[in-house]
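Minimal example, chain plus adenosine-5'-triphosphate.
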Amino acid sequence: MKKQFIVIGLGRFGSSLVRTLVHSGHEVMAVDKNEQPVQDIADVATHALQADCTDESVLKELGARNFSHAIVAIGDDLQASILTTMLLKELQIPRVTAKAKNEMHGHVLSKVGADHIVYPERDMAARLGKQLSSNNLIDYIELSPTYNLVEIKVPPAMNAKSLKQLNIRAKYGCNIMAIKVGDYMNISPKAEDLIYTGNILIMIGSNEDINHLENDYEQ
Ligand code: ATP
């Protein structure tokens, strides 16, 4: 379904977000107080405007209240980020996502009403750290603070074994949801299906159980 977003602050994060949303088929109004970032995104965004969003009357003129989702991607200017977030919530935009530099900033943003806070630098570093510290982890999605969906390379010790032989659910409490073999996806694999190095396992488990499995199969 096509959605309407307003993205405020067109630094590296905001402008990448505008591109992704537009490429995903949504309508995006992109706003920055400086001219250059607005010009740079003008060909991509549905509308691109130069405006200082700490001014309530400016936000009203932009028709900000007609958007169902606003993203505040202002980083360095904490005052502007907080004030803009507060004004957007006062205009009763149902969902406001705000980018925070650190925990303190995030805390203030939620106090002024942000519905969702993102910490791109912290989260990207955590993701990279996890990938670098594991030999097999390709990617993961945090389902909750304790449960992850992970993509892991089949370690050599699992090569040419069936899921039944490996007995991963009973031994580690992790569930293998799918096996990726090149471009082919074996969804809901059966106990007798064999796995090989080069395949990728898509698995759900608690952090503890996934770490346990990874340590046992560390190359
Ligand atoms: P990134 O890491 O995404 O590059 P950043 O965290 O360094 O960005 P800034 O560069 O400080 O964040 O801010 C992002 C953009 O927000 C800048 O282009 C800046 O001009 C814009 N901005 C700052 N204040 C306002 C404001 N009051 N209204 C609209 N845009 C603003």
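The longest strand covers residues 147-153. The chain has nine helices and 13 strands.
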